[in-house]
Amino acid sequence: MFFGITDYPAFVLAIIVFLAIPGPGNLALISSTGKGGIAGGLAATLGVILGDQVLMWAAVAGVAALLAAAPTVFAVVQWLGAAYLAWLGWKMLSAKPGDAPVLQIRPRQYLQQALFITLLNPKAIVFYMAFFPLFVDPARHQGLLTFGTMAATIAALTFAYGLIVTLLTYFLAEQIRRMPAISRGLEKLAGVVLIGFGIKLALSR
Questions:
Q1: How much is the pTM?
Q2: Residue-wise over 7-27: b if at least 16 C-beta within 10 A, else e?
Q3: How far apart are CA 97 and CA 78, in angstroms?
Q4: What DSSP state is assigned to residue 23?
Q5: Domain segments of the chain as ranges
Q6: Per-residue pLDDT tens for 31-77?
Q7: 33 with 41: CB under 8 angstroms?
Q8: Residue partners of 171: CB distance under 8 A and separation at least 6
């Protein structure tokens, strides 16, 4: 138990898996780096962090209300969250190779565009609403300290991930474009991990 967070190492691993899932946020980082270099990639990373914080604290407001008013409903939300993670993992495993959506990233607007891409990403919105309840111990959570620790952890991991993606894209752009099989393999692996998380968290309730 770490500040009321259930299984903190698993929480950290789940965030890393979520960050690695191919989607609009990753495409924004790669596109911004391609057009604006390392500065563009880091600006986009900050935009993703800001967008995540907005979504996280919106989710926290709902979770806090459920903890205070309806413990039974909170438990249902936890089960639904575990089911959602498993469903998301299955969708990733069963996905067919196809063209990724193309983001029209405009120069010198990397932070703003990454922010709005994150805020308008339905998968991110649903993920955070399902995600937070899974790692909160209703009996031992410490309110703002628990949620603040979770938010700070996600921000730090997102920055580290964004920095790595930016540097890899900047220095290995051509090689990355030539390895689509590796990208698909990582997506399948992330799907397996998410299914495992869903099952583990459902059985631990």
A1: 0.68
A2: bbebbbebbebbbbbebbbbb
A3: 32
A4: S
A5: 8-203
A6: 788 788 899 899 999 999 999 898 888 877 776 566 556 666 666 66
A7: yes
A8: none
